[in-house]
């Protein structure tokens, strides 16, 4: 069991300790394996005996920065050590011109020709492809003007309600029907709604239907009126304002799972991502500070059981309000120096597209 750090580690480390610590972490980020004293001795610029290196590693272990996964193994960074490395050692470079062009080509092209949702899916897929993790985008629900609502009967007591917005987004919901509803009544309710809601946001449509309730009672029979009410109500419950989570690249996480333990941690991550509460928490994490946030292991309460790292940044609308977040979820040995500028640039690009 490693001890908690009782003083700032940087003040307790000489140049030799820092170099050994840096090599242990960089080896873990690149290979995922422990680094032993003999291999360390070959990599150090100055000549040190394995015994001297072991003494330095013992001091680093006492500081809580590295640990030995089992007897006679080399050393790996602890979660605390990774955080210290990211904060004190890591040099975050800039994206190459080629990387910028790849990101812009996919995101900008999707944004110009498709809906916002499609652009975000492309961003998630692109981030996954450029990293070893899963690309994650949290998209806030948009309140775009409505274009069309339609009811399609699936069975005697169930129908599919289809809502289409003017920006091309489509939402489908299953709706319970009152007993005795006919196909002609579904058509009548659709026609009535479409004659009054086109060009309105969902909130405006609900207000308009409330205003026209008396008129609707005289214009529609009881069952059709019920359909009109339900057709708007199914988009006004608590779940409908919840953000949408887009995840691409699960295969990357599976490919990087090196043992049964890793697969067990991944199972926890998949379960975490299935919970609706995680969506709002993810947005809160991104909104807690400007720019890119890095959460390592249990620092991120959202995915603490899986031991995953999360690199996340918010994107904003034309009024500079945070309306979503995007990033990478992956193993703690993510290439942070490369991923941070990638996530940052993509978030800035999407924000620019939304202005």
Helix proportion: 40-55%
Mean pLDDT: 78
Number of helices: 14
The first-level CATH class of the largest domain is given as Alpha Beta
The CATH topology assignment of the largest domain is Beta-Lactamase
Would you identify the CATH H-level superfamily of the largest domain?
A: GAF domain
Evaluate the radius of gyration: 27 Å
Q: Could you give the order of the helices and strands? A: HHHEEHHHEEEEHHHHEHHHEEEH
**Helical/strand content category:** alpha+beta
CATH architecture name of the largest domain? 2-Layer Sandwich
Share in β-strands: 15-25%
What does this structure look like?
With 355 residues, the protein is an alpha+beta fold. It folds into three domains: 9-88, Winged helix-like DNA-binding domain superfamily/Winged helix DNA-binding domain (Arc Repressor Mutant, subunit A, Orthogonal Bundle); 97-141 and 242-353, Beta-Lactamase; 146-240, Enolase-like, domain 1 (2-Layer Sandwich), CATH 3.30.390.10. The protein is 48% helix and 17% strand. It is built from 14 helices and ten strands. The chain has helices spanning 15-31, 37-43, 50-62, 79-88, 97-113, 116-129, 183-197, 202-211, 213-219, 222-233, 250-255, 260-274, 277-287, 336-353, and strands at 66-67, 76-77, 134-139, 146-155, 158-165, 170-176, 244-248, 293-296, 309-316, 322-330. A five-stranded antiparallel β-sheet has the order 7-3-10-9-8, with helices on both faces. Helix 2 (37-43) packs across helix 3 and helix 5 packs parallel to helix 14. It starts with 14 loop residues before the first helix and ends with a helix. The model is unreliable at 1-6 (pLDDT under 50).
